[in-house]
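agent> step 3/5: call structure_predict on target 'Methyltransferase-like protein 15 homolog' (Larinioides sclopetarius).
agent> reason: downstream docking stage needs a structural representation; sequence fetched in step 2, passing through unchanged.
tool.input:
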Amino acid sequence: MSFIFSIRRNVSLLCRKYAHTRFISTEIQPNRNTDVYFEENIGHTPVMPNEVVEALNPQDNKVFIDMTFGAGGHTRHLLQAAKLKLFCLDRDPCAYEKAVKLADEYGDAVTPLLGKFSEIQPLLTKHGIQPNSVDGILIDAGCSSMQMDSSVRGFAISRNGPLDMRMDGNRFPDQPTAADVLNSLDVPSLVKIFKIYGEEKQAKKIAQALFDAKYMLKTINTTHELAELVQSTLGSEQRFDKLQRTAHVATKIFQALRIFVNDELNELNYAMEMAHLFLKPGGRIAVLTFHSLEDRIVKRHFLGIHMDEPVSHTLRQKYKNAFAYHSLDDVNEVTAKRWHPLHKNVITPTNDEIESNPRSRSAKLRVAEKVLETPE
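tool.output (status=ok):
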């Protein structure tokens, strides 16, 4: 797990265009002419909205944070359930604009925030939100449907467009696009990205084909160019999704690039830390994840397992003889639970929801309460 969290930093040093990302103040308003990526007619269906509302149990006059606003589907369901004060965060300037429009509709009940998870602390502090003061938090991890459905964003195999994949749009001009990564890194670096972030078994073969393409004066700049190269490299190999439908062989490559470009795993890990910081003791968090890498991070936080611990080592195994080597206070500090999961197993979409919204098929919902702090 520690390798997952360090690979992006190590590999990014090899990317010629990946200079240190400049911080662009979140107070700057998005440029409505140059940063508009979403077609206005793109719809969005939130995943498990009823389950999310039930899990968070919103009550009037409580303070909530939607840390992944997107198109605002979950936010609207929460606002319909109770009279909340809701802070709506998103790193995407286009999603932020949608949050601004929702604020126009709901007034002071909605406060839009533009920023990544790693930028949330100063944003909340500016608005007077202190640690241990929030009643509920929602995280809907990964790429939004709007981003997937916009061809100019470059996230989807099915929509031809520039191979961009930057969730932040143009907020950080020095941030490399997916095309920059593919056309700048060597084979070992690409293999690491595809294996770690995409769990792709054919990572080496695909990485070599991409690298070879550069020497044939063929840079990869669009989604269809990448998809076609992977398809031609793997030939007649067939893959299937969880609904046993045919899946494109480049799906995991697209996932890997997206996670790498946006530093998604480190950001999610930080989001979990910030959620624990700002929630009240007894406050609830609901987290939707869509692949195993995301879910492992959330599960480890809820179970109190450090990110550097081997997967096979549970806390019970690690500390069952700890009293023989450490003081009681030391052991209690390390093993103290920070979260109380509310369900033994993950919550998954119903068959009806999967049929009506196939993108929900991989979703897992985990819910937990921040554990009451014990007095010193």
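agent> step 4/5: record observation. Confidence is low (pLDDT under 50) at residues 9-42.
agent> proceeding.
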